[in-house]
Amino acid sequence: MLDLTVASLVLSLASLIAIAYLFATYKRRKSLDLRGFNDLLQASTMHLVSKLRGIEGRVTEASGRADTAVLKVESLHHELREQDSSLDTLAGSLKTLMEAQVKFSMVLRELRGRLSKVDERLNSVEAAVRSLRRPSTRQPARPIFPKPPSQREISFTSLNPTEMEVLRLLYVSGPKTASEVREVIGRTREHTARLMKKLYLEGYVERSTEVIPFTYKLSEKIKKSLEFSIKGQREVD
Questions:
Q1: Which of 12, 18, 145, 154 has the fewest CB atoms within 10 Å, measured from its CB?
Q2: Which of 42, 75, 90 is the last residue in one of the domains?
Q3: pTM for the full model?
Q4: Distances from the Cα of 79 to the Cαs of 39, 84, 87, in angstroms?
């Protein structure tokens, strides 16, 4: 469309120039006949058409080059857009990959921590199993009866009947707790506790502190004295 418009303008301009040229020539040569004028007009027209064809060819060639350049620019623009789209896709893929790598690293770190705890527990279990399989050489623990703090002379005459009853109970039945003593002598808990504490502090009994409630037993000195007293009474009888 642009080529035809340019060609039309050029042709119109050339026609005007040719007509003006012929008119001027005709005025200078008034004696020129009609046939000569017609020949001159045809020659001028042919020359003008030849020039116009040359111009039209160059215009067409230039237009073709312009169209080719436009097509190349459009193709390049399309390729650039495709490359931009590919780069955007690649950037999105890289971002997703990096996020997945970070999450994987976190999961791997957490898994390592859990495996470390599992290893510690397994080691503890294995150590416990080995200790259970190993025969024990330790003797069973025996109750410890520390010596009473009192070092004064011990006499049964200073004891009341309830206290003597407690000593005879421990002599006959062996070690007892304060609750077991209370059930036999029929006293209150507070009274029994004070009584056993007194016997302990004065050296009549020994107290085991290995377990709670405490266990009381006769001291060796009192035990021997009771054995001697009972033996003497039997001989008298």
A1: 12
A2: 90
A3: 0.36
A4: 59, 9, 12
